[in-house]
Amino acid sequence: MYFPMGLLLFVGTVIVMEAVAYALHRWVMHSRLGWTLHESHHRERKGWFERNDWYGVVFAIPSVLLIYGGMHGQLGDWASWVGAGVAFYGLIYFGFHDVIVHGRIAHRIVPRSTYFKRIVQAHKLHHAVQGRDGAVSFGFIYAPPVERLKRQLTASRKAEVREPKGRVEGASTSRLEERA
Fold this sequence. Notes:
Blueprint lengths: L2 H27 L5 H4 L14 H19 L5 H25 L12 H13 L19 H10 L25
């Protein structure tokens, strides 16, 4: 395959993966069945791994199969480019989500850009909900404006917003927590 076409396919796959990840996160991981694994990610982690990590293993399988099938000629060059795009999205996700947002590996990275801050804040708002219902912001390369997400949480009848860490239960400091 001509290199520029392969590169275009790779970049396109990374972009499409954001939509795929959004859909899987919203409608599979937050479903009754999917929550059996994903719930561990919304609780305090005990140890290095959580049950939710099995999703990463399962989602890596198509990438590995596509790369293998493309490299060995069974599927064609396109498969390697697509598989590499899926893998690269997984790497971006791991870096942003697991390392930077959740601190699963020690680092000194501080979000400074407007984009970076919005991604981190949006994911924190996703975790502000106690349980699987009423959560906001399911993607990770793109996040809606934080103010819109806050309005969605406030308006949601399903979202049970948890108390911030280190706060006395019942004490309120924001309109988000003062919901009817």
